[in-house]
Amino acid sequence: MRKLFATMTMLVVFSLVLAACGGGAVPTAEKVIQTVVVTAPAGTPQVQVQVQVAQAPGFGETLAAVQARGTLICGVNGQLPGFSFLDPSGAYAGFDVDFCRALAAAIFGDDTKVEYRNLTTQERLPALQTGEIDVLIRNTTWTLTRDTDNGLNFTGTTFYDGQGIMVPADSGITTLNDLEGGTVCVQKGTTTELNLADAMALNNVTYTPAVYEDVNQTYGAYAEGRCDAVTSDKSQLSSAAKAVLPDPENHVILDVTLSKEPLSPVVRHGDDQWFDIVKWTVYAVIAAEEYGVDSANVDDQRANAVNPEIRRLLGVEGDMGPKLGLSNDWAYNVIKLVGNYEEIYNRNLGPGTPTFIPRGLNSLYTDGGALYSPPFR
Amino acid sequence: MTRRAIASTENVLPPPIERYTLLGWVYKNLFNTWYNALLTFLAVGIIYAIGKPAITWSLEQARWDVVLVNMRLLMVGQYPVGQIWRIWLCLHLLAAVGGLSWGVWIRGYRLWSILFLAAVLGLAWSSSMDGSAARGHLIALDVIALAGFGLGRLGGKRLQRTVINLWIVYFPLVILIVRGMTSAEGAVPVVPSNLWGGLLLTFLLTVVGILFSFPLGVLLALGRRSPLPIIRWVSIGYIELIRGVPLVTILFMAQIMLPLFLPADMTVDRVLRAMVGIILFTAAYQAENIRGGLQAIPHGQYEAAHAMGLSGVQTTMLIILPQALRNVIPVLVGQFIALYKDTSLVAIVGLLDLLGIAKSIVSQPQFIGLQREAYLFVTAIYWLFSYFMAYLSQRLEVALGVGER
Question: ipTM > 0.85?
Fold first, then answer.
């Protein structure tokens, strides 16, 4: 009896340790391409499951998986005002979230079939690499390193973020030159500090940088009135910095951009069809604004539009949808359920919202911005 | 001390009970010397200086609507509105079993129970409950708890075994009810764990953590004292490995690294991963706490058990463990309270527990900058339940007679 107990204890403890350390056997997260056949217990629906170890998805696999699952899994920040957050009813809302919804509308014709994953900065890229999420739409800046080294593809900019400057609304400052002789709060050792110095040198403005160790100190110093202005990414200024201010409504973000921070949805390498779907969903939203199609007039446009570009976009002519593996009314669904770029922007970041950011570069190319959709042809 | 000495003390009078008027008490305790008087004034001054702005702020300046508007999110996260009755059902069951236990074991403490029930009623009548089903449920909670209490009192000791069994059944039942078991059309459809959140998720993580880490901890503690070298080494290795890393690294490992090692199509539920991380972590600490209790058992106990003809398993289960565990109740409960608070670390890995929801709601554009209100509310909830657990452990110690032998 005693021996039995001892043996049992040993078995239990040993298997626990094995379970706890089992993962350690694989030293790195490199792609091990290998097919494992897992046999499920008899009686379960799938008898054999083919499992591919950390392999990039093949052409069409992501869309097939999403359609089989019935929901799109979209990685978001979840805690960034204006971009993605939980509203009091428990639903996700925000600029990034609207692009998740647009993608679901394109695939399913239903913008609610999305499962959101809150991801932290550290988790976001691994979550995509391991296939936990289908697409990452989480204020992620498009850089060469991220686009190549991590096995990821950036699909196209949804928001041209960039370093901005916030000043008190009653200060009368509207351009960089108005800051002549002033003090600017900035975080130490960041590209932000260098970008500010470059921009000020280019414009021949003399100023005093007030340098602080971390973000909160920087915003805190500005809130206490120790500088005339504070600089950081615009999306940050509209949320994090305002959170520190006692009177956020009395501060404005200047229509000046000091650095390039293009935020883009991200997908995995390997599945070009999925890459195309995400890319063209973003373009459809931009094209809709270019052609003046919005959620209110989209039915009328589909019935009566004569412009062949609009007719192709809305699936009246041509077969744009099937080329992507979607139904021909995919873009119609996106515009009908989520809206065009202007509607998405104004709903989340437009004038009148607490997170107002001037459109600046995020205007159509015809209005001096950088938004430009390739032709739907 | 000899028997005679004890007998001779029987006729000695007990020490007199001191009684004071309020003023007398104040004089004796606060102003008995000049420096104590000075200290008293200083302390009152400091309390006033800190307390007054805090109270003014919380009553006049704080915008508590960020908490009131998001109350459902803070309590159950994104749990589907149509299914919230299941959470209430769990609470009603809890009230019933809790009321029964109250009646069977604790009996007295009328003031505390009345205060508690009144607080629930007060919550039911507060203005934020207008037009919601919550009010009816809260009143029902009180009624059920009272009924349980009455039944427990009537049944008395005969019900003890039943109530213990009810508790054992309760927790698995709760997890089953919260998770659901049928597909979308059934009466209790499965609610995927990514929709669990708020206080609900905090509690589930805590309860699962406690239920599973405790037996694992006992096994590891026994293993570490085992005469068999492999078991001992494995136990020591496990305990020291886990105790050597912070919980947050284990959670990061579970959330970020684990999926890299698993096959691409195999995804382990994120909540489950956090639960396993918390269980493995707590078990290592509990093992050491329990080992402390085991070491306090004199060797004579083992020898006596052997002399009685008990086997090794019987000795451990019937003689050693009951005494050892009773000795370490304060440490065990302390660890469980720590576990309860440590669950807030899952907010760092993107799960929406109570703290995660608090972080989320302060990013709602209309509530930007209201961190203080949200975090203060969360702090109050953590304190309330931690204190409740500490109080229960005290009651448990009294009931088991710890420290009296």
Answer: no
